[in-house]
């Protein structure tokens, strides 16, 4: 029955591609939502089934193709990581299917969006369930193809040579990585590859330092993902998210590409977790990316950029956790942050659509009167993202900090300082958005502002379901990730070694939790100061003419000097 998990999204893609001229659009939308609903329920069934398995390792294989005469057996691999990602991806696909119905008045565009989205979901399910390199390859390139087709929906056709060149380098790195994995293990099957570490003693010497061949290959494999992912940040390219008229593309980006990047790292941990060098490379890479995105967040006022940078900072934060070997905290935080980001993306999309696709938050303001429910949903999403008690984000942040307090890294206080800086910037930016968009002075187009109404009932229902999940799911899933059961199960799923421990202690080092909360409150207070209190002082001509104060207004507030 598990095979229908792949058939339903593929069937949805085929319906939109070949029957959009023969079936009414309304019927196609209903069928699409029904198929994604079945796919979500089936993924939930697989997750519960794996969770209740009696064997020590929560893993089973679904035989897809078996030809005994040709000695061929193709299996799909299902474990907690795979089934958990499948639940998240199919649930996201279901929500986007509902959300995209009224995305455009043009039914042809809506059909294309739903069609390529279905293909994306199918490709991701193929990738994460792969048990061999061929399926791994096919899944990745189905995702690439679908992202190209989605980007091609826009009439904005400008592309540049840098994107093409970087994508070809990414393809080359990906090909070489899979080729070297095959040559080292002499197999395309993951089970054989995972056991090869105990047999193969292949070492490479780089800069007078000896590292495992597998570790080097997986660094190159992840580099190929990052290089492919960079295309979404290049201005005036085919994949530039700013050219799209909604936050849907950013949502697809986070719901598809970030799970792929996380899967690239976690799938092959059993071949790399012993090495400190590999962990240090991921830790340094995550720290650099996190610092870059936090810096970009400070100076940005574009709603799309803000969401994209927040999502990217979350992913960079998870890279830091992978580098510190806090694997169960990584998976837990990924699930909680994804739900929060879904709420934010849907809400941002509604606001932008109502303001005729305006994305500069300085041209918004005082929308709490017009959209009180959207304000409440965005507030819930940000509060969970910040880890405020007792939302789901609080439990994942608590697990991360408790495990962080037990590591024996030389640069422990530097890492801790970066985590506090991350918490400060995210809290500051979150309330910067809330204050400027909902509580600040109204800078909207007055004609659009007068016509604004709260979101439609079906969109508010989606946001309500997500908000309930964010509020009440944390305490339930906490045991799955942080209890003794969670520690053992994720050790087996991710690293497969009984000697590797994922320890945590919530009772000791309470000062870390308290300090992080204080840092968040400071960020929130500074946001209130810069975007609510100081702009009012700017109306005083004597204070406003002060050069130092004027520079502060320009640099750190949204004050409008033209008013």
Strand content range? under 5%
The oligomeric state is single chain
Please tell me how large the radius of gyration is: 24 Å
For the largest beta-sheet, the strand count, sense and barrel status come to: 2 strands, antiparallel
Individual helix count: 21
Distance between the termini: 63 Å
Structure characterization notes:
This protein is mainly alpha-helical. It folds into two domains: 1-156, no CATH class; 303-563, no CATH class. It has helices at residues 4-18, 25-51, 80-99, 107-128, 133-151, 161-185, 190-195, 213-229, 248-266, 276-299, 303-323, 327-354, 372-386, 392-404, 412-439, 446-451, 457-482, 484-494, 510-537, 541-544, 547-556, and strands spanning 59-67, 72-79, 203-206, 209-212. The strands form two sheets. Strands 1-2 form a two-stranded antiparallel sheet. Strand 3 and strand 4 (209-212) form a beta hairpin. Helix 3 packs antiparallel against helix 9, helix 4 runs parallel beside helix 9 (248-266) and helix 13 (372-386) runs parallel beside helix 14 (392-404). The radius of gyration is 24 Å and the shape is globular. The mean pLDDT is 79.
């Amino acid at each position: 029955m598990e095979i229908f998990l792949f058939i339903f999204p593929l069937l949805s893609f085929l319906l939109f591609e070949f029957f959009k001229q023969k079936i009414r659009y309304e019927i196609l939308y209903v069928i699409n939502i029904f198929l994604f609903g079945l796919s979500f329920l089936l993924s939930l069934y697989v997750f519960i089934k794996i969770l209740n398995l009696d064997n020590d390792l929560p893993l089973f294989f679904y035989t897809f193709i078996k030809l005994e005469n040709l000695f061929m057996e193709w299996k799909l691999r299902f474990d907690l990581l795979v089934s958990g990602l499948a639940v998240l991806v199919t649930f996201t696909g279901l929500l986007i299917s509902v959300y995209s119905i009224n995305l455009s008045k043009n039914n042809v565009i809506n059909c294309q969006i739903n069609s390529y989205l279905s293909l994306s979901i199918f490709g991701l399910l193929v990738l994460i369930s792969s048990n061999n390199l061929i399926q791994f390859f096919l899944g990745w390139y189905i995702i690439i193809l679908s992202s190209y087709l989605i980007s091609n929906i826009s009439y904005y056709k400008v592309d540049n040579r840098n994107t093409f060149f970087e994508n070809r380098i990414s393809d080359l790195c990906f090909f070489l990585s899979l080729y070297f994995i095959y040559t080292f293990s002499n197999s395309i099957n993951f089970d054989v590859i995972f056991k090869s570490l105990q047999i193969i003693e292949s070492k490479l010497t780089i800069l007078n330092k000896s590292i495992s061949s597998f570790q080097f290959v997986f660094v190159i494999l992840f580099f190929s993902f990052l290089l492919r992912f960079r295309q979404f940040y290049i201005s005036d390219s085919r994949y530039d998210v700013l050219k799209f008229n909604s936050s849907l593309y950013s949502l697809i980006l986070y719901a598809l590409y970030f799970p792929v990047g996380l899967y690239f790292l976690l799938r092959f941990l059993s071949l790399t977790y012993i090495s400190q060098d590999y962990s240090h490379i991921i830790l340094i890479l995550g720290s650099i990316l996190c610092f870059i995105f936090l810096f970009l967040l400070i100076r940005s006022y574009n709603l799309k950029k803000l969401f994209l940078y927040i999502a990217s900072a979350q992913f960079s934060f998870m890279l830091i956790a992978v580098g510190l070997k806090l694997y169960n905290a990584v998976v837990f935080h990924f699930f909680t942050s994804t739900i929060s980001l879904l709420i934010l993306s849907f809400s941002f999309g509604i606001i932008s659509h109502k303001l005729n696709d305006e994305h500069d938050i300085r041209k918004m303001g005082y929308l709490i009167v017009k959209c009180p429910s959207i304000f409440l949903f965005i507030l819930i999403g940000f509060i969970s993202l910040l880890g405020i008690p007792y939302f789901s984000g609080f439990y994942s942040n608590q697990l991360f900090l408790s495990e962080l307090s037990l590591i024996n890294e030389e640069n422990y206080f530097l890492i801790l300082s970066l985590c506090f800086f991350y918490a400060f910037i995210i809290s500051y930016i979150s309330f910067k958005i809330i204050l400027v968009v909902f509580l600040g002075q109204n800078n909207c187009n007055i004609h659009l502002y007068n016509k604004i109404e709260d979101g439609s009932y079906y969109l508010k229902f989606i946001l309500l379901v997500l908000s309930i999940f964010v509020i009440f799911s944390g305490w339930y899933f906490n045991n799955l990730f942080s209890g003794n059961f969670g520690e053992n199960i994720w050790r087996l799923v991710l690293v497969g070694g009984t000697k590797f421990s994922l320890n945590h202690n919530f009772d000791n080092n309470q000062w870390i939790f308290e300090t992080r909360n204080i840092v968040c409150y400071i960020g929130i207070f500074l946001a209130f100061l810069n975007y609510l209190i100081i702009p009012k002082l700017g109306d005083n001509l004597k204070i406003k003419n002060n050069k130092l104060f004027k520079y502060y207004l320009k640099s750190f507030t949204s004050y409008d000097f033209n008013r």
